[in-house]
Amino acid sequence: MHAFPLSRRAVLAATAAAAALTAVPLTPGPARAAEDTGEARPYRWRNVVIGGTGFITGVLFPPRVRGLAYARTDIGGAYRWDDRAARWVPLLDHLGWDDWNLLGVEAMAVDPAHPDRLYLACGTYAQAWAGNGAILRSEDRGRTWQRTDLTVKLGANEDGRGTGERLLVDPRDSDTLWLGTRHDGLWKSTDRGATWTPATGFPATPSTTGQGVTLLAAARRTVYAGWGDADGTAPNLFRTADGTTWEPAPGQPSGTAAKVPVRAAYDRHTRELYVTYADTPGPNGQSAGSVHKLCTVDGRWSEVTPVRPGGTTEDGSADSFGYGGVAVDARRPGTVVVSTNNRWAAVDTLFRTTDGGRTWTSLKDSAVLDVSETPYLRWGEERPKFGWWIQAVALDPYDSEHLVYGTGATLYGTRDLRRWAPQIRGLEEASVTQLVSPPAGRAHLISGSRDIGVMYHERLTSSPARGMATNPVSGSATGLAQAARRPAYVVRAGWGDNGNGAYSHDGGRTWAPFAAQPDIARSAPGPIATNADGSVLLWSFVHWDGTKHPAHRSADNGTTWSAVPSFPKGATPVADPADPTLFYAYDTDTGTLLASTDGGRSFTARATGLPAGDAQYKLVAAPGRTGDLWLSTKFNGLYRSTDGGVTVTEVESCRASHTLGFGKAADGAGYPAIYQVGAIGAVTAVYRSDDEARSWTRINDDRHQWGWTGETITGDPRVHGRVYLATNGRGIQYGEPT
């Protein structure tokens, strides 16, 4: 599950476009050289390989093209499968800073009659602080796009994001498209998605719960629409045979186990529509569900649920779950696969039938999972689990045994229905929060992400061989720091199963939990820092709802802790990289830079009157220097102090700075290379300076923007020009001059 930082609401509201129903060209183009203030070799950008790490919410095989598939994610864009290269190709990396909300893909559709036509419904959040959604239209399988901005919001990272698809090309007319929305009912386009209007005659009222239309499916020339706001007694599946008149599907199931239609798939051989149901849209919270099929010839419904939720497991736990994905075999009549969802006690599975649902086989029971390519999927255990949040299931129309299913972390595939492995190359969806590039050792990068904790990257081109950091197994990372003068010592903070803080004495390869932790760390782990020689820890605490708590200090590697009342609550501690007695902090509430000269025991104010009011302001220290501090204040620019915060001056070369980091100096330069996400002119982009911020060179281009990239950035202290960039949904990007 991914969550965007809510502290960005004010900025998001200010940048959200007042969308109109007009077509806007959206073809990736060359870099905007006008924003450059220096010359540099072009950069090559690639993902640091982890492998998936996010929720795959939909997979689609076009019916008439062998070897082609598309995948959508909740915050990381959409992808096209390159069968020859056996990897996924990202399709939305060109979306820039102002369009971050479009990196969540609510739904996708292909035109069966024109297989090169691809449509995406984009919009990550339906909240007031997020921008409106948009429809992206491609005639060349996502290589280039046209865009239509909508006047409604979509919610690709909200409850119900695994339902669908909510976008459909009408089976009677390729120029007509249907779009189901969460709050605004059903919409229709008659010009291939260029303009949209509310569909007339659709009987369901606008949604107040944020579910609305959950699915659209075609059965020959009839279109079906699922409705997620029914109470278990009212109709929740509607149909139209003429594109104008809608009616409830007669005889449809009712009750708690059929409250929300999740997904649907049509068997053209038997002319039966299979529908999965749950009591909530998921992916969380489902406790009941069922599977039903409709014979579209005579209108007869049949329940074909493989296993009814509500029993108990061997250890006595309640076996509660819903049903999620459904796929039919295009080559074998009556062959269908469905998935359970939110089945934590007995673990989710896929059920397969070859006789139209009379009998089912659990594919999990005979599955052999090979996660050697993405070892983190073991989650600290000896064997990986079959998966969770399974709502995306797809069968290759040209290969009955090529089956894939998405989970909350990866996409599994099989060619024989028994042996499974992640089919995830090229698809990287991590929401990254922490980056450290060590000055020495086996790893060039240590990273922390929201869902998969901390990883140690000995190689950038393969998933970390040690998987995610264990002992304790960590969930979302909130802090990561390395002792500047003792790089073998690394500390981390975040959600864990054996304490929320840990340390490493071998540069991040292996970890041990702190012997103790402050009580507040159990519910509000936040950023952590260690001083230059690793003798002192400072741990700050921020609850998920934004509540800030006093920081704590340890001088015995986390065995004992004491509060530091003078440290600004919720601030990020920053260690001086040269002097072990010095720490710094920036109070974003008051615009005050504070310093400690006694190893973090007490802090006093230094510079005051600086920009305030945004928790995303970031203070960083230049490597190898005492008191050389840089402050990124987003739209208020970049500031610097060379005396430990006593005096602070604005850097005039930079209009906006969102995050900043350092790397190896250029040949002949006396100061580290500086990297930042910011704006020198009008464009927010990635920049590098080799002359102490006197001038900047843009190093990304319009094809490589990745939406919101304001979390963290760092250069490599051993390789000049190499930079690592955290994204919110496209993993870790690293760039190098070509």
Automatic annotation (TrEMBL):
Keyword annotations for this protein?
Carbohydrate metabolism, Glycosidase, Hydrolase, Polysaccharide degradation, Signal
Q: Does the keyword Hydrolase apply?
A: yes
Signal sequence, start to end: 1-33
Q: Which residues form a coiled coil?
A: none
Question: Which InterPro entries does this UniProt record tie to the protein?
Answer: TAT_signal, WD40/YVTN_repeat-like_dom_sf, Xyloglucanase_GH74
Q: Which SUPFAM superfamilies match?
A: Oligoxyloglucan reducing end-specific cellobiohydrolase
Keyword 4Fe-4S attributed:
no
Q: What top-level branch of life does the organism fall under?
A: Bacteria
Gene Ontology biological process terms in this record: polysaccharide catabolic process; xyloglucan metabolic process
One MF term in the entry's GO annotations: hydrolase activity, acting on glycosyl bonds
Q: Which protein family is named in the record?
A: Belongs to the glycosyl hydrolase 74 family.
The name on file for this protein is 1,4-beta-glucanase
